[in-house]
Amino acid sequence: MNAQAVASSSRRRRAAGRWRAIRRYPALLAGLTLLSLLVAAVILAPVISPYPPDHVDLFHILAGPSWAHPLGTDELGRDELSRLLWAGRTDLRVGALAVIFPFCFGTAVGTLSGYYGGLLDAFVMRIVDVVIAFPFYVLVIGLVFVVGEGTRGIYIAFAVADWVVYARTVRATTLVVRESDYVAAAKAGGLGDLRILLGHVLPNTISQAIVYIMSDVVLVIVAVVTLGYLGLGVQPPTPDWGSMVSDGQQFLTTHWTLATLPGIAVVLTGLSLSLVGDGLADRLRPQ
Amino acid sequence: MVIGVAAATFLLLHAIPGDPARQVLGLHASAAAIAALRHRWGLDSSLASQFGRYIGDVVTLKLGDSYVYGLPVTTIIAQRIGETAGLVAIATVIAVAITLPLAAIAASHRDRAADHAVRGVSVIGLGMPSFWLGIVLIEVFAVHLRLLPVGGSGSGLLGHLEALLLPSLTAALAIVPLLVRSLRVGMLDVLGADFVAAERANGLGELRVLVWHVARNALIPTLTLLGLNIAFLIGSTVIVENVFALNGLGSLLVSSISSRDFPMVQAITLVLAVSVVAINLATDLAAARLDPRIRLR
Known about the structure:
The complex is a heterodimer.
Chain A: H1 2-23, H2 26-43, H3 45-48, H4 80-116, H5 118-133, H6 136-147, H7 151-178, H8 181-188, H9 193-230, H10 241-249, H11 257-284
Chain B: H1 2-14, H2 20-25, H3 31-40, H4 47-59, H5 73-108, H6 113-126, H7 130-144, H8 156-191, H9 194-201, H10 206-244, H11 249-258, H12 262-290
């Protein structure tokens, strides 16, 4: 019983310590709070949204806010609040997935390229230079054109266009780590390349890529929404913040909320992710 | 570098599933008609010889005819490129005009209210889609205040500039958060330098130190930063042109994609990528010119 009490009190103390650590970073705390609210809202969308997102009610089109429709309805009488929540579900999921592929691929390529150097490195860096020469949106739009609109197109386009920054960042830190004493020691100890890469190099280079992924996911979500706005992204009838803005644009003079609210949702998402990213960068930075 | 970019656009076009000749002639075209068109476009020769011919065409600026307009793509691009170039130029000026004072204020008031305000605003700006910002600006300045046109290219030089003002502001605001963040760090480095401490010790006023010495030293990082972000800026003009219905390359790119006009898409992508390479080279050269410590390899 005594041992249990000690264990639980030490756990409580550790939890309190962690809480104090988080409180030292108010921006991180604000970001985490906002982000968890947003994520909870979109996960619970099926439960909390008052209507299905595609529930058409032609008797109540372009209605203002009311008890039945807190944020009004769009040109087909669909409930704006429900559509915002369901669109967030789509955009957050697509954004999160679209950033995972370039992160994994770029990190792997950057690690190998930096560790082995030589011809492989020269070749990879040439490709990186070429990809970076294309304006991001031009490349993504071109790739979506090639592989087809919709979520599959988005995943492929971002994987091709976005891996380069991860590859560059990870390669640069790998070059430093490769020359370190502990890698030399591991090599002298006869460890295989795979084990050195996974056990000694990657743990020391990955934090840079993780810091970058937090700011990158903001850019990616904004880009997913932008493609939706141009009609090249998530395809209707699946709700998406971008297509909601483009649908609402024609009613700007009379119903400005239709185009404005989805944008505010994007800004809030971006803000929460940036705050968390900056907070993480502060914490991970070597003192 | 340019050849690499050309190779990438070539691969992009040839990765398209399906046969462009069939796409253009439709499902019910005869096999002979398709073969004839494939031959005219040179699609029946080997990939390597197609690539060789393509590189030759790029060098001599023979980029083919648009499927939709029936004119050489170079002619159409030449008509449209001015609009995009003007947009990029004005947006760059606006971006620098906003960035410099903000970064200076943030750096000189480090960790005080002004710094937090500038950083907070730039964090919000990072997550703001530029198409949406454009719509909000239209809403405020064109619809409610009726100060500026809603869209289109305007007539006459003055009308043209007026029409470009909101789009340029939108495109500029897309890169300002990135620029402010980096330049603030750059200025903090300069502010911590020994020569600044020496000037302060000699009794120079804070404003004079900031404007005359720190800003001058921050100019080169700004230039390099602009070079690095120009690709992003050109990318956001593609979006902005669609929001404001401007007749530039960006709106042409998106409309060519929906009409599946392959040569047009290929040529615009190529032109935009090559201009990014050219601008990067120009800023590198200019930075080397301004700063004797930078030596080009």
